[in-house]
Write a structure and sequence with these properties.
CATH architecture of the largest domain: 2-Layer Sandwich
Radius of gyration: 19 Å
Largest sheet: 7 strands, mixed
CATH class of the largest domain: Alpha Beta
Order of helices and strands: EEEHEHHHEEEHHHEEHEE
Number of helices: 8
Strand content: 25-35%
Number of strands: 11
Shape: globular
CATH topology of the largest domain: Ribosomal Protein S5, domain 2
């Protein structure tokens, strides 16, 4: 028999995102409230020839080499390049969407790598979080293994918060947005001035977002942008209301995902296969 490890890599929502400063190295300082979603990628680490396989999300053009964030996370967890271990990534979280999919993949793969070595599955400590922020600003939040948190600094300072259950409608436009381009478009005068300080620069880069906001509002939701976008979301504690918003958007031919916030982080599952 062979044994593998499986783990979900959840998407996230930024319920708020304020830019509060910028360091000398150019990194922006953030103050954001973040929650995990049930929507998730799925990672499987199995014994066999070393490599990375990606499938799932239509139109995905993720790299299959050492630049892939999931692969970088696995190397961080193992402490070296994989030997006789294959990582399969089932991509379900849209890429370049403001949902943190790549960062979540990196954090999940790191956990799998540590478990592969027989190390404790516990959350990353403070020193690890600082290092993981070099992979991506959202990686420390996912690596902290908490369902909700206030995230500050450049993403490495995590203060766990009590999760609040909510049903969430994600509205996906037919384009992505580069986080780097959105931050480059951000103006100093826009810091700390909105529910999400990245909304104004995202709108300048993609004026079509105004149409999506209007559609979500017409469907009965309060439209908000998560992260650097372009995903727009509306949330409700009433599942019927969320379902109604989702239905109206579907009828308007908007690609949507109906999901929920999580009350716990994902756990590693051991897979036993008979040979």
């Amino acid at each position: 028999m062979s044994s593998g490890l499986r783990l979900e890599a959840p998407a996230k929502l930024n319920l708020s995102l304020a830019v509060v400063g910028r360091r000398e190295d150019g990194f922006h300082l953030l103050d954001s409230h973040v929650v995990l979603l049930e929507l998730a990628d799925r990672l499987l680490l199995m014994p066999g020839s070393s490599g990375l396989r990606v499938e799932g999300e239509p139109g995905s053009s993720l790299p299959l080499d050492e630049s892939n964030l999931a692969w970088r996370g696995l190397v961080a967890g193992l402490g070296h390049a994989p030997e006789l271990a294959c990582l399969a990534l089932d991509k379900r979280v849209p890429i370049a969407a403001g949902l943190g999919g790549g960062s979540s993949d990196a954090a999940a793969a790191r956990r799998l790598g540590r478990a592969w070595r027989g190390l404790p599955e516990g959350a990353a400590d403070e020193a690890d979080l600082v290092g993981l922020s070099q992979i991506g600003a959202d990686v420390p939040f996912f690596a902290a293994c908490v369902p909700a948190a206030r995230v500050t600094g450049i993403g490495e300072l995590i203060e766990p918060e009590a999760p609040e259950p909510a049903h969430v409608v994600l509205a996906h436009p037919p384009f992505g947005l580069s986080t780097a381009e959105v931050f480059a478009e951000l103006r100093t005068a826009e810091w700390g001035g909105a529910e999400n300080d990245l909304l104004a620069p995202a709108r300048r880069l993609r004026p079509e977002l105004d149409d999506l906001f209007a559609l979500v509002q017409a469907a009965g939701g309060k439209p908000r942008l998560t992260g650097s976008g372009p995903t727009v979301f509306a949330s409700s504690d009433d599942p019927e209301r969320a379902g109604s918003i989702a239905g109206r958007l579907r009828r308007g031919r908007v690609r949507i995902t109906l999901t929920r916030t999580r009350d716990t982080a994902a756990s590693i599952e051991r897979i036993i296969e008979e040979e």
